[in-house]
């Protein structure tokens, strides 16, 4: 039962409402997280304690599910999505060094969004193994990717008007 004396938290009211819609059923945790992400665009950090309270689960349990599944976002999506392949062929062609270089240039880790609005996501094969290492910028496939080529593609995508 939520504590009415506690000040409202960002994302908490949406979490409460969605938990109630699922009858505060702990077995519905994944559905609740999906519904919350659909409603808010991501799962706000302040929703975690609220969900744990409503479902009578530990915060660590909710956080564990949230971080285990790559589909869940804990921050809003950036303007541009960059997918970096970590599949075997790409690994053999230097994907990890490429990922490190791109992340350093953007100032964000895999799974995060950079200050300039690039969400960097790992993927595990883009079907472009012959041209490894492969990447995708807003759906546009890039083979034989280098940090310089990705920088150029990202800067071009960021300069396009918002969709
Ligand atoms: S392993 Fe990277 S595109 Fe297939």
Automatic annotation (TrEMBL):
Family: Belongs to the complex I 24 kDa subunit family.
Molecular functions per Gene Ontology: 2 iron, 2 sulfur cluster binding; metal ion binding; oxidoreductase activity
Keyword Metal-binding: yes
One Pfam family of this chain: 2Fe-2S_thioredx
Positions contributing to [2Fe-2S] cluster binding: 85, 90, 125, 129
Keyword Repeat in record: no
Cofactor: how and how many bound: Binds 1 [2Fe-2S] cluster.
Annotated organism of origin: Albimonas pacifica
Keywords: 2Fe-2S, Iron, Iron-sulfur, Metal-binding
Listed name of the protein: Formate dehydrogenase gamma subunit
Top-level division of the source organism's lineage: Bacteria
Gene3D superfamilies linked: Glutaredoxin, NADH-quinone oxidoreductase subunit E
Cofactor: [2Fe-2S] cluster
């Amino acid at each position: 039962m939520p504590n009415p004396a506690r000040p409202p938290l960002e994302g908490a009211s949406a979490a409460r409402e969605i938990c109630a819609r699922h009858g505060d059923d702990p077995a519905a945790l994944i559905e609740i997280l999906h519904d919350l992400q659909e409603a808010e665009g991501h799962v706000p950090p302040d929703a975690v304690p609220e969900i744990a309270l409503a479902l009578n689960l530990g915060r660590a349990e909710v956080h564990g599910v949230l971080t285990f599944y790559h589909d869940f976002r804990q921050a809003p999506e950036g303007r541009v999505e960059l997918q970096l392949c970590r599949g075997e062929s790409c690994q053999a062609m230097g994907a990890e060094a490429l990922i490190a270089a791109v992340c350093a240039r953007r100032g964000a880790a895999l799974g995060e969004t950079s200050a300039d609005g690039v969400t960097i996501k790992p993927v595990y094969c883009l079907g472009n193994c012959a041209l490894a290492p492969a990447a995708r910028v807003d759906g546009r496939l890039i083979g034989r990717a280098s940090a310089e080529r990705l920088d150029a593609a990202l800067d071009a995508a960021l300069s396009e008007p918002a969709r």
